[in-house]
Amino acid sequence: MSSSSDKNLSDQFIIWVIILTQFATPFMFSGVAITLPEMGRELHASAVALGLVESVYLGMSAALLLPIGRIADATDRATLFKIGLVGYSLCTLFISFLPSIELIIAFRAAQGAFGALLMATGMAIISQKIPPERLGKVIGLSVGAVYAGLSAGPLIAGWITAHYGWRAVYSLTFIPLMISTLLAVWALPSHWQPMKTRLDWVGSVCIFLAMGLLIYGSASLDSVWGIVGLVSGFGFMLLFFFSQTKVTLPLLDLKEMRANYNFSHALLTQLFMYVGAFGATFVLGLYLQSIQHFSPSEAGQTLVVGPILMAILAPLSGRLSDKFNKRILTTFGVSMAIISMSLALQLDQNSGLPLILAVIIFQGLGFAFFSSPNIAIIMSSVDASKYSLATALSAKMRALGMVFSMIIITLVTSVYLGKQTIEQAPDDYMQVLAITFSVFTGLLIIAWLFSASAIKARQQPDQVTANQ
């Protein structure tokens, strides 16, 4: 009895350590958007280059999530989680000393690679230790921690940037990340075993090249090589999906996804939700500081409203998903995001604070009611032996959504601004906003259709494959 009690206590502590890391990494990520205008002025970086600071991070994460998810299931999730946290922490520290935007972009790519290790394993470790009847609640706490980190990022990073400069955001954020690392190394036991299955190297290389070429091409449309890169990126993406139908152990089992209705629809809904909503915060951060002339601190205080709503309501949404139809909650969340984008289309250079806050509030409500139930659908739709892969696929769709959201922004910015800064062409940047938010609205409508169509589907509620 004592041994069982000790194990339960140890598991609970490990879960809270992971939840702490779920707070720490998005804290740094959300703070980046606030530092970008100040970083751009110091390093004389264009709007396109500032976009790459976010895009390469997301692209590297998206490129590596599936291979890492497959490796984690076959080796040891805890070991990979700890390696990811160590590397992520060190990259955060190094960025604070870098002298050029090019080096910062390179280290952000490395940070994204280590971030992929965290995203592919953290939720899988939690799902492995929590019984299905309490999974929604714990996922809600984890998602709430993510949004708490997102909410603290703009507020604290804005204050630090205003008083001590953008570099201090990275060096100070290293401290909680390092504390999380030490706790994870101490609390998470490793059980490494050699990988006995073969990794799909063809698919891994194809998805890596696709992400890299899409990001390069979207940022270089003023050159022939940029167009070639963009087209090649889409070509490698198609080649990746084709390769997954030809190998014995694919990274992405398309046949299994088609057979698992709940799983596939939840993943597709998540993809379009993030493509259509994620980039809005990045665009608004630049809009507030470069068009509305908010200080970094004021911009952070404004943007923090949405993540605060997410942090407060995501745990509630997780609890509701244990009791009610999860699809109704996800559809409601997407509906809130559509309202946010519709309001964002009304923004101009003279928009008042009430309209800006309305955009942020409805986006916060959207993600708060969408994320926890959708993750619960994904994790409860697969067998326990595939938790890491399901986590990686969930994170993959989220990261792909973020990447494509940023690619859309970078494409439109590259066409209308080129190498100009926002301050040099404010009217052109407002065109960027209008076109970007129009595209986002259309993508969110697609997400709504995926989510709503699954509400009354004749499918087992959640555990489609759990008992296989």
TrEMBL record:
<feature type="transmembrane region" description="Helical">
    <location>
        <begin position="399"/>
        <end position="417"/>
    </location>
</feature>
<feature type="transmembrane region" description="Helical">
    <location>
        <begin position="429"/>
        <end position="450"/>
    </location>
</feature>
<feature type="transmembrane region" description="Helical">
    <location>
        <begin position="328"/>
        <end position="347"/>
    </location>
</feature>
<feature type="transmembrane region" description="Helical">
    <location>
        <begin position="12"/>
        <end position="36"/>
    </location>
</feature>
<dbReference type="InterPro" id="IPR036259">
    <property type="entry name" value="MFS_trans_sf"/>
</dbReference>
<dbReference type="InterPro" id="IPR011701">
    <property type="entry name" value="MFS"/>
</dbReference>
<dbReference type="InterPro" id="IPR020846">
    <property type="entry name" value="MFS_dom"/>
</dbReference>
<feature type="transmembrane region" description="Helical">
    <location>
        <begin position="223"/>
        <end position="242"/>
    </location>
</feature>
<feature type="transmembrane region" description="Helical">
    <location>
        <begin position="168"/>
        <end position="187"/>
    </location>
</feature>
<dbReference type="Pfam" id="PF07690">
    <property type="entry name" value="MFS_1"/>
</dbReference>
<feature type="transmembrane region" description="Helical">
    <location>
        <begin position="48"/>
        <end position="68"/>
    </location>
</feature>
<feature type="transmembrane region" description="Helical">
    <location>
        <begin position="353"/>
        <end position="378"/>
    </location>
</feature>
<feature type="transmembrane region" description="Helical">
    <location>
        <begin position="263"/>
        <end position="287"/>
    </location>
</feature>
<keyword id="KW-0813">Transport</keyword>
<feature type="domain" description="Major facilitator superfamily (MFS) profile">
    <location>
        <begin position="14"/>
        <end position="459"/>
    </location>
</feature>
<keyword id="KW-0812">Transmembrane</keyword>
<feature type="transmembrane region" description="Helical">
    <location>
        <begin position="299"/>
        <end position="316"/>
    </location>
</feature>
<keyword id="KW-1133">Transmembrane helix</keyword>
<keyword id="KW-0472">Membrane</keyword>
<feature type="transmembrane region" description="Helical">
    <location>
        <begin position="138"/>
        <end position="162"/>
    </location>
</feature>
<protein>
    <submittedName>
        <fullName>MFS transporter</fullName>
    </submittedName>
</protein>
<feature type="transmembrane region" description="Helical">
    <location>
        <begin position="104"/>
        <end position="126"/>
    </location>
</feature>
<feature type="transmembrane region" description="Helical">
    <location>
        <begin position="80"/>
        <end position="98"/>
    </location>
</feature>
<feature type="transmembrane region" description="Helical">
    <location>
        <begin position="199"/>
        <end position="217"/>
    </location>
</feature>
